[in-house]
UniProtKB/TrEMBL annotation, chains A, B:
PROSITE patterns the UniProt entry points to: COPPER_AMINE_OXID_2 (PS01165)
Annotated Pfam families: Cu_amine_oxid (PF01179)
Co-factor: note: Contains 1 topaquinone per subunit.
Copper amine oxidase catalytic domain boundaries: 238-635
EC number(s) recorded for this UniProt protein: 1.4.3.-
Name of the molecule in the record: Amine oxidase
Top enzyme category: oxidoreductase
GO terms classed as biological process: amine metabolic process
Signal peptide from the UniProt entry: none
Catalytic site positions: D309 (proton acceptor), Y393 (schiff-base intermediate with substrate)
PTM sites of type 2',4',5'-topaquinone: Y393
Keyword Disulfide bond: yes
Top-level lineage group: Eukaryota
Length: 663, 663
């Protein structure tokens, strides 16, 4: 077994020890109830020493493993403990102020789900539906979000659906939403009230009526009525007979000049650490930091549909067990995650991260038309993938390392739309009718990726370059066709506006290292697609809680434990305690140890084609070397040729000479 | 042999007949000199009848094959003829006004290249360089572009480079640009003058000096000094043991519910015709229409660097012979193109279009967290690819059809930067130093894709939807979180502004066909990335010649032969005779037969990493069904599973259960 590394995924025995130490610190009567346990990154200062020693093969300093535990005591007191599991003692334990709500544990949510449906008052409401024989009711527990500054109770709301009478566990209840929504207190499971949902043009609601039967739009192959034999899909096999080009030892990955570590995270899904390419340091840490999903339907209680999928529940603890040949094609290496139950007992989340190589077409090509000689190389990528299921939605996160020094951070949204009831012959301006009496409201997905750069070292600067026309001038620009770049520096912690029409690009540079060819500082470009940011009013809770969602690019001075864009505790939060505080306009960020936060937003106006299960919507952020190397860093790739790639002609296609790329 | 179809690629015997008929129409003394010959699309009106008959299995009407011929007579008279090669007569032949310059024939360009270097006045200039033994001079002929409204001669300018003394034909002359640029008259090969190129901060030039030796930055594996064995790249094989899922007969492709035709084009590379998905008509014709590449260096003669890569020379006639296992991986079907020589004799451009299937990750997924059952399907794509070499640059065009009804039009720019000399210790604000004494000027690539829609028929409308916040209102929007879409209709031929911050999306809809689920018109979305458009002054020749480059989306009323965004003849054009005339603000385009023109622009600020050969820059336009189907059209895909996909675990990775997607 490989010795544990400070960046390694938390181990089960570490979780067990931490939870035991915490439980032992309270009387049994306190009923310690855990909701999340994971490792804490070591202070960067000590990690830098550690990594330097490691690189130079020296003895590495002892760095204790520290875990955080979120847990409730006496049912409703929310606490956080930091536990040193190397020596085995609690560093601190703090009870958080009333009103701070921790992330919900998936196991608790499922228990509450059952409790809700079985509650007499909910049963009474269900009875009014007079459901046909065999039909039943299923609910999705939902984060309660925030609409009242005085609300201190941890709450959970439930959206109710009819489960069709086909007796199939995979029947699509999202196709049959109901018009009432019970609210309970979390943990105590105390009934609070039932909210009624509008079905018409406006906010008007009506008492629960007998349910009018409509067809259920099914997605499962057993139920959707599709004939899959009508499509001719022949196998397309991806194989690596000589094995993959990567090597993985513990959390350490080596591939094509890249070296980094991958670790699973209860909250973030996975984290990439200590990234080098061709022997040069480029990033210290890369991870998804937060995601908020605000909905645009203004009618109560829909105004409270604003999830924070990392802070409210956790991306890693909701990670899928990935399937060979299903979620991942080729030669696959899997990593596991670690979940817990409320007693603090760990369990494995198997195969929740997959890693593999893939071909992504042509990387570079040139043909000398004089000789017809071609040089051509293929773009090979190394993919780190995880998929989280957050109730109805699925998110696929791919971080792809390419042979030319690029990193592509790809998000794919799929799964099932969050649906609402809508009456016959009604249209609403904030949603699309996606099935009989079912509407999918417009919403936004706004993700924040935390990028902790180390471009040739830790002292970095963020600049942004606009491309602007030169004024016409009889001598300097007589034909009015000249244009130049205009560079600006981010001096203080804050954000940078988007400006696609000046081709604004954001770069992380190291002003202390000059590229000998271009005579400019070395850097990496951060390419973020220009997007609409959060639409809600500036003074709405949606925005107060998610400042990160108001701008595309943020720069802060590095601080240990400033990891989460909307703050550490987002569940029913009143305000953003993350970038809202850290991007303070005061901290110097030029030629400092900085963190860049990239906001990837997409406004989702549902299509009928997105139902009953949604084809992926794909969005990308690119990190690209920019005057970092002294020439194309992929020149050392072997030339593409068919002795190596063994491609074939379709039968009956006359063969012709392959590309000449050697003389 | 399959009977010829009106959309089929021109046949060699058709070219031979057309050129013979034209030559026979002139006295031998006229020296008919051809520069381009290809087929003309039949009038849409007759094609619609033809295609309807074809679809219903009726006898198709006789449609004559018509070819256009561009040719010079008496050396400098430029003519166009339309020839009916079915019956074998010339329909029209016209001599074009002086000043109209046709596309240059690759064969002519290479002849002029040699003529230039060998010309005594150029040799005299070369002599002043006092090149070291073994070194020689190589030139790239360049389109002359436009800076003078009175210039009527067809001209060609030459950029001169040193060819290093290594005796290797693939040595990278672009690394060693010289400071003089001869200009000749085309066809007559008459010497006009030598322009001198600035090497300093400004437009100042100096007489040719002895060449100062600097290292050549080489790209070819024989020369670049890289050790390709240092990278461990194991084979990644893509195979289809049961053959591909597509069938191709003549120009007709059938795959996964898609049906369309692919034909090669001398000017456009390839054209996609008559596109159906799942039995419904979606597009009549899709092709790249034009591309202009204006440079930002304001100094003479660089202000004349504005190529029109389709109109000035032709994308298809500069198409690469694609290599199995080099340009295309998997099971490949190739199509040939047809080029000509100046006598009108056709030749095959072999394998210039490749077609194959590929996997593009997850298409959709959902996991029911209650049962842990997953549904997951993979995104299979069918790719039509061509690659053109335009002197230094390469462009890779991929049109990818996906199983969910999406079409992704992908452009990859690679090849070698167009370089200019720069003196030691000089920096300029409009270029990047990419090697010793070599500078790559900032430039733009602005492509126009012509999309002729037929969304459930030919009467279509373009709309654009903005997402806007609802005003806060005590009853209608009490929490200030509501947002809705605001739809506008394009009524008259013209353009639509970009507006990313209102999430503006462009849709082609059919107002006569209502989606029964959403109760809204069926449509396809055209997704174009928000980009900086052409930077040059409104009244510069660069803009006058390329109006299409000023806006991202254009809509015109359909007219036969309105195919090219900047007009039919772009070489040394004075003004845009394409969209500049057709987008007239007058023609009705609502619920009419319309054409949509999508401008894909990217401003290229070269990186050192882009030299000596550039890793691809990739840009995409998406066409996506939008409330066109009544649900996800890919539900009939078989579920992904490893019996089918045969993926493998990395050796030593403990196996765990695959995804359960059947109960």
């Amino acid at each position: 077994m490989v010795a544990i590394h400070p960046f390694d995924t938390v181990r089960d025995y570490e979780v067990r020890l931490a939870s035991k130490l915490v439980k032992d610190a309270y009387p049994a009567s306190a009923n310690v109830h855990f909701v999340q346990i994971d490792k804490v990154d070591p202070p960067k200062k000590s990690m830098i020493k550690y990594l330097e020693a490691e690189k130079s093969g020296l003895k590495v300093p002892e760095i204790p493993r520290v875990l955080y535990c979120y847990y409730y005591t006496n049912t409703l007191d929310f606490n956080k403990a930091l536990v040193n599991v190397t020596v085995g003692h609690i560093i601190t334990k703090t009870q958080l102020p009333k009103g701070v709500v921790g992330p919900f544990l998936p196991e608790d949510m499922m228990e509450w789900e059952e409790h809700c449906t079985n509650h007499p008052l909910v049963q009474a409401e269900i009875a009014k539906l007079k459901l046909p024989k065999g039909y039943s009711v299923r609910n999705d527990p939902w984060i309660y979000a925030t609409d009242n500054a005085n609300e201190r109770r941890p709450l959970v709301q439930f959206f109710m659906y009819v489960l069709a009478g086909n007796g199939h566990s995979e029947s699509n209840h999202y196709s049959l939403p109901l018009k009432f929504s019970p609210v309970f207190e979390a943990f105590t499971k105390k009934f609070i009230r039932i909210d009624y949902l509008p079905g018409g043009y406006d906010e008007t609601t009506v008492p629960t009526q007998p349910w009018q039967e409509v067809p259920c739009v099914e997605y499962h192959p057993d139920l959707n009525g599709e004939d899959t034999t009508s499509r001719i899909v022949k196998p397309l096999l991806i194989s690596q007979p000589e094995g993959p080009s990567f090597s993985i030892e513990g959390s350490k990955v080596k591939w094509q000049g890249w070296e980094f570590r991958v670790s699973s995270s209860a909250r973030e899904g996975f984290v990439i650490y200590d990234v080098y390419f061709k022997g040069r340091q480029v990033f210290y840490r890369i991870a998804l930091s937060e995601m908020t999903v605000p909905y645009g339907d203004p009618r109560a209680p829909y105004h409270r549909k604003q999830a924070f999928d990392l802070g409210d529940c956790g991306f890693g603890v909701n990670g899928n067990q990935l399937g060979l040949g299903c979620d991942c094609l080729g030669v696959i290496k899997y990593l596991d995650g670690v979940g817990i139950d409320s007693t603090g007992e760990p369990h494995v989340i198997p195969n929740t991260i997959c890693m593999h190589e893939q071909d992504n077409g042509i990387l570079y090509k040139h043909v000398n038309y004089r000789t017809n000689n071609a040089v051509v190389a293929r773009k090979r990528e190394f993919v780190v993938q995880t998929i989280a299921t957050v109730a109805n939605y699925e998110y696929v996160i791919n971080v792809k390392f390419a042979v030319d020094g690029n990193i592509d951070i790809e998000t794919r949204a799929t799964g099932i739309l969050s649906t609402m009831p809508i009456d016959e012959n009604v249209k609403v301006p904030w949603g699309t009718i996606v099935g009989p009496n079912v509407m999918a409201a417009y919403h936004q997905h706004i993700l924040s990726f935390r990028i902790d750069p180390a471009i040739d070292g830790h002292k970095n600067t963020v600049v942004y370059d606009d491309v602007v026309k030169l004024p016409t001038h009889p001598v300097k620009n007589p034909f009015g066709i000249g244009f130049v770049t205009d560079r600006k520096y981010v001096e203080k912690a804050g954000s940078v506006d988007q400006s696609p029409f000046t081709n604004r690009t954001y770069k992380i540079i190291n002003e202390n290292v000059i590229n000998p060819i271009s005579k400019t500082p070395v850097g990496y470009k951060v390419e973020i697609p220009p997007r609409q940011m959060i639409l809600a009013d500036k003074d709405s809770f949606n925005v107060k809680r998610a400042k990160f969602a108001t701008e595309a690019v943020w720069v802060t001075k590095y601080n240990d434990h400033q990891l989460f864009a909307a703050g550490e505790f987002t569940n029913q939060s009143q305000r953003d305690t993350g970038l809202g505080e850290w991007a303070n306009g005061v901290d110097p960020v030029r030629n400092e140890d900085i963190v860049v936060w990239a906001t990837l937003g997409f406004t989702h106006i549902p299509r009928v084609e997105d139902f009953p299960v949604m084809p992926v919507e794909t969005h990308n952020i690119h990190l690209q070397p920019n005057n970092f190397f002294t020439r194309n860093p992929a020149l050392d790739l072997p030339q593409a040729n068919n002795n190596f790639n063994k491609s074939q002609l379709v039968a009956g296609n006359p063969t012709k000479a392959c590309c000449k790329n050697n003389l």
